[in-house]
Amino acid sequence: AVVYLNGERVDYADARVSVEDRGFQFGDGLYEVVRVYGGRFFYLNRHLKRLQKGAEEIYMELDFGLDRLRDVCKKAVVESGFKDASVYIQVTRGVAPRQHAFPEKSSCTWVVIVRQAKPQPDEFYENGVKVITVPDERWTRCNIKTVQLIANCIAKEKAKRAGAYEAVFHRGGIVTEGSSSNLFIVKDRKLFTHPANNLILHGITRSVVLEIAEKLGFDVVEEAFSLDRLFDADEAFVTGTMTEVMPIVKVDGKMIGDGVPGEMTRDIMREFRKLTETVDE
Ligand code: PLP
Q: Which molecular function term from Gene Ontology is one that the record holds (predicted)?
């Protein structure tokens, strides 16, 4: 892996932060995961924009500057030599004696880690995956991509123990999103997904899928729906930077549609694949 810590290249083994870093003590930080295909960034600017918005939400000034972060990301990918890579970006409010209220003076800790991408197995995309549903036990500002991910981690662990690919959250029976993905269903040839409000992360892949759907002339309804609608869907899929567009064929052991990836899902997957071969921004 190639690691940059506060703008400087460091050896992986030397890449350390303070025990008084607020990211470590409070989860007081944000992150992004960006995908690189064939040496081309896949919507890096959308990720940086989301990071900036998240920073504003938590009153954190990105004191190093987004342009510098963008430059470091690009440099690190080139230096890694990886054509297909994941770029992990983490920013925290920095180091200060432990006090809940924000330090008057601190500078951000910021990290960029580039790794070779480990794509999901082809058979997952070909045959679809199973998911389980779990109560959404997160706070109500899920639009902020904070590093406080314990509820997401517990949900993913439950999925893993159930032999499922993903855990889908529901808040009082209303489906929100996956533990690290957004969820779409298809019913009567219409696409449904939770509106981009405070209860879900506004996924970059979600936004790309909405654009694909528009291009394909699919009707899209950004409306909250219940668990019953999920079980009763004709098709379902989750989206995410590393997940891409992943068809779902079973929810809590119950078959979705015919138990194979749906037609509209496959159309979207095909268009998504095309974008990964061309997008360079
Ligand atoms: N929802 C949650 C909770 C996530 O953690 C993620 C990604 O990690 C997503 C959705 C998908 O977002 P993106 O498409 O920007 O990767």
A: pyridoxal phosphate binding
Residue 6 backbone class (left: φ over 0; alpha: ψ -120 to 50; beta: rest): left
Inter-CA distances, 227 with 33, 72, 168, Å: 29, 43, 10
Q: Which residues contact 188 (CB under 8 A, 6 or more apart)?
A: 234
Does ligand 1 come within 6 angstroms of the Cβ of 166? no
Q: Which CATH architecture has domain 2-116?
A: 2-Layer Sandwich (3.30)
- Strand 40-41 relative to strand 244-251, pairing: unpaired
The tens digit of pLDDT for each residue in 38-70 reads 999 999 999 999 999 999 999 999 999 999 999
Residue among 179, 70, 102, 94 nearest 134 (CA)? 179
Residue 150: pLDDT band (50, 70, 90) is very high
Q: Give the Å distance between the CA of 206 and the centre of ligand 1.
A: 8
Q: pLDDT tens digits, residue range 165-180?
A: 999 999 999 999 999 9
* 125 neighbors 266 (Cβ within 8 angstroms): no
Q: Average pLDDT over the chain, rounded to whole?
A: 98
Specify the CATH class of 122-276 in words: alpha beta
- Long-range contacts: 64-72, Cβ < 8 Å, 24+? 64/6, 64/7, 64/107, 64/108, 64/110, 68/7, 69/110, 69/112, 70/44, 70/45, 72/4, 72/7, 72/112
Our mutation pick for probing the ligand 1 site, out of 182, 198, 202, 244, counting the most ligand atoms within 8 A of Cβ, is 182
Ligand 1 centroid to Cα of residue 240, in Å, is: 5
**Residue pair 4/65 in contact by the 8 Å Cβ criterion:** no
Domain ranges of the chain: 2-116, 122-276
